[in-house]
Specification:
The complex is a heterodimer. Chain A has two helices and five strands, in the order ββααβββ. By secondary structure, chain A is of the alpha+beta class. Chain A has one domain: Ubiquitin-like (UB roll) (Roll), CATH 3.10.20.30. Chain A has a five-stranded mixed sheet, with helices on one face. In chain A, strand 3 and strand 4 form a beta hairpin. Chain A is globular and about 30 Å long. Chain B has 17 helices and 13 strands. In chain B, strands 4-5-13-10-11-12 form a six-stranded mixed sheet, sandwiched between helices. In chain B, strands 8-7-6-9 form a four-stranded parallel sheet. In chain B, strands 2-1-3 form a three-stranded antiparallel sheet. The longest helix of chain B has 22 residues. Chain B is globular, with a radius of gyration of 22 Å. Classes of the chains: A alpha+beta, B alpha/beta. Chain A: It comes from Myxacorys almedinensis A. Chain A: Pfam families: ThiS. Chain A: This is Molybdopterin synthase sulfur carrier subunit.
C-alpha cells in the first residue's frame, strides 16, 4: 500500500479525507488506483492527454518526481506520495 | 453635488473586489481561503469590478488617502474599513544619478523597499494585505513558508494585529533573518531542507490545520499586495509609467503583480498606457526561470538551489511560467548572475547610492549591469530597478568583502599615519577596480 496525501481542494472527492491508501507500482498506476477509489480525481490532476497538469506537483517520500522518473517513478510498499498545488514564494 | 461625486464620496471606503477566478480556466469562486482551482489546479486570482473603480477612484482620492499602501485600498482584496496599517509602503523612489553614470544610463530610478516598514522588505506589503484578509475570514492563527523576509514580516505584523503565528523556514537561513523573526515571539519551525521542501511540508500542514497560510490558502489575497509596487512607481513618477523595469525573480509572483498593477492603472484611466519592458533577475545558483527563458521553454524544470541569494532560492517557482510570458510579450529579458557578481552588485549600489541591500538586491543590480553591458537596456529609457530587501539581514554574504576598519591609537600621529595608508590603499584599489 502507498499512502497518498490529498490537498484540501481535492478533499471533496475523497470524503474530506486528507490521506488515502492506494496501490500502484508507479505514479501512473497510482493515478488509476486513486481514480477507482475517488472517481473524478484523475481529471483534476491530468489534462485531456492524460499528462499531469503543469500546476500539480507530485512528491514521492518528499522528493519531487521531476527529479526522479516523472510518471514512471517507481513506488514501493509503505511509500508516501504527496500531491501539492504550486505555491507562491516567500 | 453631481451623482458621480456623490458616489465617490460615499463609496470611497468600499472595495471593488468581487470574487476569485482561475487564471487558467476562468472558473469563479467565492472569496474564501482557497488558492487553487478545483477543476484544473490553476492558481486563483482576485477579480475586480474595474468599471466601479473607474467611476469612483481618481488621482485625488488616492492622494487624499493614508501615506501607505492603503491609499490604494479599492484595488486591494479586503473589505475592512480599518485594514492593518503599520506604515507599509510609500518607500522612496530615488533617482540614481551616480549609479546611472557608472553604468551609462540617463534616467535610472531605485524603488527602495530596503526601507519598507515594519521589517525592511517588500514582504510587508503582501503580509499587510494577507493578514487583514485573514482577520476578515476569521483566522486566529497565521502561518507561512519563508526564505526569511516573509517570516520576519508575518511574525511582526501578526504581533501587531494580535494574531497567533507559526512560521516555517529552512534551517540554514542567515542569522539576521532568524533573529529578526524570533524577536516577535512566534512559533518558529526551522526545517532541515530547502525552501521547496518547507513549502511542501506547509501545504501538508495546511491540509489538516485550520490556519491561514499567507502564501498558501491566502495566496490570492497576499500576492495582490505586490501590485502596490507598481502603483507607487506610477504615482512617484508623476503619474507616468516607466519604460523599463528590472525586478528580482524568486517564485515570479512579484514580477507578475507589478505588471498587473501597471495594467490596472491604465485600465481605469489613472495613467496613460504605453509599452513597459519587464526584465527579471535570478541568481545563477537558482535560475530555473532564466534557464527556461534562454532555452525558449514555456515550462519550468525545477532545480536544487545553491546560491548566497537565499531569499531568491526557490527551485520550483509557481509563477515562473507567467513571468516568462510577461518578459516575452514586453520585449524584456531574464538573466542570471553569479554569487561573485551579486556581492559586487551589493557593493556597487551601496557605494554609488548609499543603499545597503541584501543579496536579492545585489542580484538585481548585477543583472541591471549585465543587461546594460549587453545593450539590452537603452540608455534613454526611464528605467526603474526594484530593491526588495535590506542588507543588514544578510551580513554574512559580504563579510570579508568590504575591508576592515583602520584600528588606531587615540593620538593625532596614529590617525595621520593611518589616513596616509588608507589613501594609498584607495589609490591602489581604484587602479585595480575601475577602468
Amino acid at each position: 500500500m502507498v499512502k497518498v496525501l490529498i490537498p484540501t481542494p481535492l478533499q471533496k472527492l475523497t470524503n474530506d479525507q486528507a490521506v488515502v491508501d492506494c496501490k500502484g507500482r508507479n505514479i501512473s498506476e497510482l493515478l488509476e488506483s486513486l481514480e477507482s477509489s475517488c472517481p473524478g480525481i484523475k481529471a483534476r490532476l491530468c489534462d485531456d492527454q492524460g499528462k499531469l497538469r503543469r500546476f500539480v506537483n507530485f512528491y514521492v517520500n518528499s522528493e519531487d518526481i521531476r527529479f526522479l522518473e516523472n510518471e514512471n517513478t517507481k513506488l514501493n510498499d509503505g511509500d508516501e506520495v504527496s500531491i501539492i498545488p504550486a505555491i507562491a514564494g516567500g | 453635488m453631481t451623482q458621480a461625486t456623490q458616489e465617490k464620496a460615499t463609496t470611497s471606503a468600499t472595495t471593488a473586489f468581487r470574487a476569485l477566478q482561475c487564471k487558467e480556466c476562468g472558473a469563479e469562486y467565492e472569496p474564501k481561503a482557497t488558492h487553487v482551482c478545483e477543476l484544473c489546479f490553476g492558481p486563483l486570482e482576485v477579480k475586480y469590478d474595474y468599471d466601479f473603480l473607474r467611476r469612483t477612484v481618481t488621482r485625488e482620492t488616492i492622494q487624499a488617502g493614508p501615506f501607505s499602501i492603503w491609499r490604494y485600498r479599492p484595488f486591494l482584496p479586503v473589505m475592512s474599513d480599518n485594514p492593518i496599517d503599520v506604515g507599509t509602503g510609500m518607500t522612496p523612489l530615488l533617482q540614481a544619478h551616480r549609479l546611472a553614470r557608472r553604468l551609462g544610463l540617463k534616467k535610472l530610478y531605485i524603488k527602495n523597499d530596503a526601507v519598507n516598514m515594519p521589517t525592511l522588505s517588500f514582504k510587508d506589503r503582501v503580509v499587510s494585505v494577507a493578514l487583514t484578509r485573514a482577520r476578515e475570514l476569521g483566522f486566529t492563527t497565521v502561518s507561512c513558508a519563508s526564505t526569511g523576509n516573509l517570516a520576519n514580516s508575518t511574525a511582526a505584523i501578526a504581533a501587531h494585529a494580535g494574531l497567533d503565528c507559526c512560521v516555517f523556514i529552512p534551517s540554514d537561513l542567515e542569522a539576521g533573518k532568524v533573529l529578526g523573526t524570533l524577536i516577535y515571539n512566534p512559533t518558529l519551525m526551522a526545517v532541515h531542507g530547502n525552501y521547496d521542501q518547507v513549502n511542501r511540508l506547509c501545504s501538508e500542514v495546511a491540509n489538516t490545520h485550520g490556519w491561514g497560510f499567507v502564501n498558501i490558502n491566502l495566496r490570492p489575497y497576499y500576492s495582490e499586495g505586490s501590485k502596490t509596487l507598481g502603483y507607487e512607481v506610477i504615482e512617484q513618477l508623476g503619474w507616468q509609467l516607466p519604460d523599463h523595469i528590472v525586478a528580482p525573480l524568486a517564485s515570479g509572483s512579484l514580477f507578475t503583480k507589478i505588471y498587473k498593477g501597471f495594467q490596472e492603472f491604465v485600465e481605469v484611466g489613472l495613467v496613460e498606457g504605453k509599452p513597459v519592458r519587464f526584465s527579471g533577475a535570478q541568481a545563477e545558483g537558482c535560475s530555473p526561470i532564466a534557464q527556461a527563458f534562454s532555452e525558449g521553454r514555456d515550462f519550468i524544470s525545477p532545480v536544487k538551489p545553491n546560491t548566497i541569494a537565499k531569499s531568491l532560492a526557490i527551485g520550483n517557482p509557481a509563477d515562473g511560467v507567467y513571468a516568462i510570458d510577461i518578459a516575452h510579450k514586453t520585449n524584456g529579458n531574464i538573466e542570471s548572475v553569479t554569487d561573485a557578481e551579486i556581492i559586487e552588485g551589493m557593493k556597487l549600489l551601496a557605494e554609488t547610492e548609499g543603499i545597503f541591500t541584501e543579496t536579492a538586491g545585489g542580484t538585481t543590480i548585477a543583472t541591471l549591469k549585465k543587461l546594460v553591458e549587453a545593450g539590452k537596456i537603452d540608455p534613454d529609457e526611464t528605467t526603474v530597478v526594484y530593491i526588495t530587501g535590506n542588507g543588514l539581514k544578510t551580513q554574512e554574504a559580504v563579510q570579508g568583502y568590504v575591508g576592515e576598519p583602520l584600528t588606531i591609537e587615540p593620538k593625532l600621529e596614529s590617525f595621520e599615519r593611518a589616513l596616509e595608508r588608507s589613501r594609498t590603499l584607495d589609490r591602489l584599489e581604484w587602479q585595480q577596480v575601475l577602468v
